[in-house]
Design a protein that fits this description.
Length: 172
């Protein structure tokens, strides 16, 4: 009888924790509802200058790697292919829609050791900073092969240098 009572107690506690997590995620969705729509993927993209397979880590508020963005499926981790085009960066994410970041919206790129609950070796995650409306976001990507990280960062730096940046006063 003790085993059954213990099992029921554990199941009840697990249900309560799962319910609280769901409430927190729903609250986050409500708070971020005004974030605005994601940019559409252009119908005609130039050939990719670089393609890397890996894991889409998450998108967070810039500078706050714990503030995961829940809307538009940006908070879900999953396998993805990241490709860099003259028009911007495309994350072809498995299990959810693609994320396209126009080149004019990209503001910075760097590497980091952790983001939104994913921690790896030193500088193992490529972090792309970009603007969505008035809000600056960070998107993390972990390459499947370590040798792909440096060329990816170099290609992103070239994209940032070549792209006309959004006018800071107009917010576009």
């Amino acid at each position: 009888m003790d085993k059954i009572a213990s099992l029921l107690l554990v199941l009840c506690l697990a249900a309560i924790v799962a319910g609280l997590i769901a409430l927190g995620w729903r609250s986050r969705l409500k708070q971020q509802a005004g974030l605005g729509p994601l940019p559409d993927v252009p119908e005609q993209l130039s050939p990719a200058g670089l393609v890397a397979e890996g894991q889409y880590v998450a998108t967070t508020t810039a500078g706050d790697w714990l503030d995961r963005i829940a809307v538009h499926g940006l908070g879900f981790r999953g396998n993805a292919e990241m490709s860099i085009h003259p028009e911007g960066v495309l994350f072809d994410r498995a299990g959810t829609g693609p994320l396209f970041i126009p080149s004019r919206a990209v503001t910075d790129c760097r590497s980091a050791s952790g983001m939104a609950g994913k921690f790896v070796e030193k500088d193992g995650i490529v972090v792309l900073s970009w603007m969505l409306g008035e809000r600056e976001l960070d998107t993390g990507f972990r390459t499947r092969h370590a040798a792909d990280k440096e060329p990816l960062l170099e290609a992103l730096q070239e994209l940032i240098s070549a792209a006309p940046q959004a006018d800071a006063d107009s917010g576009k």
